[in-house]
Amino acid sequence: MQYRRLGQSGLQLSALSFGAWATFGKRIGRGEARELVAAAWDHGINFFDNAEVYAQGEAERIMGDVIADLRLPRDGFCVSSKVYFGSADAPRPTQRGLSRKHVHDACHAALARLRVECLDLFFCHRPDPDTPVAETVWAMDALIRQGKVLYWGTSEWPAALVMEAADIARRHHLHPPTMEQPEYSLLHRRRVELEYAPLYGELGLGTTVWSPLASGLLTGKYRDGVAVDSRLGHPDYAHLRGQVLEAGDRQARARAFVEIADELGVAPAPLAIAWCLRNPHVSTVLTGASRVSQLLENVQAPALLERFDKTVWRRIEAATQER
Fold first, then answer.
1. Catalytic residues
2. In angstroms, what is the C-alpha Rg of the chain?
């Protein structure tokens, strides 16, 4: 496993990390979750990602229980949560958003569910139009000073809002955002590569990118339709089908990529993840899995970085670019 600094911070994260979205508390139970976390740890993964909204908090409860059961050394791994959507089925106004109250409450709830004394990373899951950015920055700074959070950041925030948060922190001598968690894959590149470009040098921002497989589209498993046991086949994710399968020319671009992977003699999933890792501004690539076999395939990605030359990577990019 490779390890990379989280932006310009001193925190070293595994190049591949493991997340609980769409799996823990939804498609898999505690026993399978334990096997996955154990396999991830055995293969050098040291960052486990979560959020208050994942399975309405159940994903965090399962992850915390599993990590405690495995007796992983607390100083050997990092764990995260995210705040915005809330964990209630129908959250009331104070149970969601980025107000000082909900940021405070969500942090302490995540600590209890994950069974840790501090969150290594705490993300603002989306921008909150109803809360001043300054209020959120002060709330995050307070949690850091209390020792409840080590690094805070954002997820899917416009670059202008990230800059605003950093400017507020600078002017008031507060802790600024350290990282962003954006979507990034061969089929979704613009924000990471263009919009955020000024942030890497100016703020030293790190990225913990998600959906490197474009919700499974880059694995080729949806070429013949949506299987009932797949993520898009699950009723809870029916809303993603149109976005993943029918938007623009994504299907054609994905097919072109899978054909190249077949020609190269490698599985498409680790190849797509390896492409993400080629970006020096990617601190870690978040991966998910519902089976250990999937995880073991994904962890082959770092080895592919040196296996192919620039000509191959240019060909992949040309085949998958937007038309």
1. 54
2. 19
**CB-CB neighbours of 266 under 10 Å:** 19
Integer CA distances (angstroms), 38 to 35, 81, 298, in order: 5, 20, 15
Give me the mean pLDDT over the 103-127 stretch: 98
Looking at this protein, which amino acid is placed at residue 267? A
Residue 149 vs residues 54, 141, 243: alpha-carbon distances, Å: 20, 9, 34
By C-alpha distance, which of 215, 164, 207 is closest to 182?
207
Name the CATH superfamily, with its identifier, for domain 3-320.
NADP-dependent oxidoreductase domain (3.20.20.100)
Q: What is the pLDDT of residues 253-300, one digit of tens each?
A: 999 999 999 999 999 999 999 999 999 999 999 999 999 999 999 999
**44-60 pLDDT, tens per residue?**
999 999 999 999 999 99
Token pair 């700074």 is found at 141
Q: Are 72 and 115 in contact (CB under 8 A)?
A: no
Please give the model's pTM, rounded to 2 decimal places: 0.93
**CA 130 from chain center: how many Å?**
25
